[in-house]
Design goal:
Number of strands: 7
Distance between the termini: 48 Å
CATH topology of the largest domain: Alpha-Beta Plaits
CATH superfamily of the largest domain: L1 transposable element, RRM domain
Helix content: 55-70%
Strand content: 5-15%
Number of helices: 6
Mean pLDDT: 82
Largest sheet: 4 strands, antiparallel
Low-confidence stretches: none
Strand order of the largest sheet: 2-3-1-4
Radius of gyration: 30 Å
């Protein structure tokens, strides 16, 4: 599934959630109007015996109508609950598909550009040269595509990042195992002009937008609560309190709340 298809599914899912919320608000509004109508009838119950009988008949009719109305609402709520559950399952499925797709990718920062408007084929060959000089045995056949991506801030002057998508996870793992050697590769050995700065090269997991946002939250959490380490590996985010503590997986924002609760319970 392409990124565009994933974005389209997410957009549709969010629109359906909005419609669902609107429907629930409409139901609540109708319930409040029914209750207000009964209150008005009760408040107007003044006058003689005939007026009281008329009020009682009105209340009886209201109760019957309200019972029928509540039955209808119960059925509607049940259908809305079913829709909400289906939307939740769809969102999980979309996340899993996107996570799987990104699992074949790496993001490379700091690699000097061969030229302005570098073509994907040139970027792919540049990556192959870099990987092999790092000590990873990679051929062009191991790469699906590699291309430069623009910064959101167009004023940034450093080289554009590279997104490299592998054909096999094994090839990606091979590169990730040797990534610490990337910054020591000489520019001339990968086809770049001698003297180009290579010392700032970083090779990272390419996280989905959802996980990238969570990673940012986890890093802020690390600073706020005094954790020593926060990193991402194979699309999963980890926190570690100290050298001697075990790594803690962070899959969603709720995990961060759970981690703090566990830490507090351990200290008490």
């Amino acid at each position: 599934m392409s990124n565009q298809q994933v974005k389209s599914l997410r957009k549709s899912n969010e629109e359906l959630k909005k419609l669902l919320g609107s429907a629930r608000r409409d139901i609540k509004s109708r319930e409040e109007r029914v209750g207000a109508q009964e209150f008005v009838v009760k408040e107007g119950a003044t006058g003689g015996r005939e007026a009281q009988l008329e009020t009682e008949r009105s209340l009886e009719w209201l109760h019957d109508s309200e019972s029928s109305f509540q039955r209808d609402l119960h059925g509607i709520r049940k259908r809305l609950d079913d829709i909400e559950e289906s939307l939740g399952k769809l969102e999980i499925a979309v996340n899993e598909m996107q996570d799987y797709s990104y699992a074949f990718n790496i993001k490379i920062l700091g690699v000097p550009e061969l030229k302005v408007n570098e073509e994907a084929s040139e970027t792919s060959n540049l990556c192959v040269n870099l990987f092999n000089r790092m000590g990873a045995n990679i051929t062009i056949n191991d790469i699906d595509i590699a291309h430069r991506v623009s910064f959101r801030d167009s004023s940034r002057s450093e080289p554009k990042p590279i997104i490299c998508k592998f054909v096999r996870r094994l090839a990606k793992n091979n590169v990730m195992a040797m990534r610490r050697h990337a910054a020591s590769v000489a520019a001339r050995d990968v086809g770049l002009e001698e003297g180009q700065v290579m010392s700032k090269i970083l090779i990272l997991d390419h996280l989905t937008p959802r996980m990238q946002e969570l990673y940012g939250t986890a890093k802020s959490f690390k600073t706020r609560f005094g954790f020593q380490f926060c990193w991402a590996k194979n699309g999963t985010i980890f926190l570690r309190n100290s050298e001697n503590s075990r790594p803690l997986k962070v899959r969603n924002p709720d995990d961060l709340s759970r981690i703090i609760q566990d830490e507090q319970e351990a200290l008490s």
